[in-house]
Amino acid sequence: MADDKFQKECKKNIMAVHDAMDVLNGKWKISIVASLCYYHKRRFSEILKDLNGISNKMLSKELKDLEINKLIRRTVLDTHPITVQYELTEYGQKLQSVIRDLTDWGAEHRKEIIGK
Amino acid sequence: MADDKFQKECKKNIMAVHDAMDVLNGKWKISIVASLCYYHKRRFSEILKDLNGISNKMLSKELKDLEINKLIRRTVLDTHPITVQYELTEYGQKLQSVIRDLTDWGAEHRKEIIGK
DNA sequence: CTGTATCCGAGATGATACTG
DNA sequence: CAGTATCATCTCGGATACAG
């Protein structure tokens, strides 16, 4: 029946969200994606400053995770000393609408919190 | 200069995202919101089934967190035995576009993964 | 500058049993 | 049915020092 179809649809959608969050878990990943989403190209030390409170160890680990999942691309630049540039892959860029929505919501949320 | 303004804008956006994720942290919160987003009204035991692998303890805790942050509303129904209904608040409903984007992305992501 | 290595504690999460 | 209580585990994540 139609109810059954609705159930399956919901279940599938919820699983999709869960799959997405599997890749984006952790305290910092989404913020990192956000940084690359807005700056487009960004260096290790720059991202370190973008995210208030993250340690270099965590940033290193999270970047590695994101790279493994093909969300970001890592490029070593031929400078002295070496610098490394990160950017979203075409695939990672598909998260832009998510980031923008979250930005809007987060900004509103901040107002709510401060308002109290 | 304009560059300065751009910087501030980026920083602000990244902070907004981080604020949003502060409320939505944890392995399950976004999936719970997704469940309520698609089902609109949902009972404790139903959500338990929606999210594959969550324990009742975690669900209880996450629901409490979400309620404290005014994202969901908890209603005790006068049935025998008692049943409890959860739903998004008007405020929580503002996350719908985030959820929908994540659903789309997650579905695509799943295809990518399975494709390998 | 961009990481890695190590140590450590706190909190997140899970399994199971239990209560109103 | 909707949780709580308890215990065990495991991962996250910070601090610090070090390396190429």
From TrEMBL, chains A, B:
Residues 10-114 form the HTH hxlR-type domain. PROSITE patterns: HTH_HXLR (PS51118). Gene3D superfamilies: Winged helix-like DNA-binding domain superfamily/Winged helix DNA-binding domain. Pfam families: HxlR. GO terms for molecular function: DNA binding. The keyword DNA repair does not apply. Keywords: DNA-binding, Transcription, Transcription regulation. This is Transcriptional regulator. It comes from Sphingobacterium hungaricum.
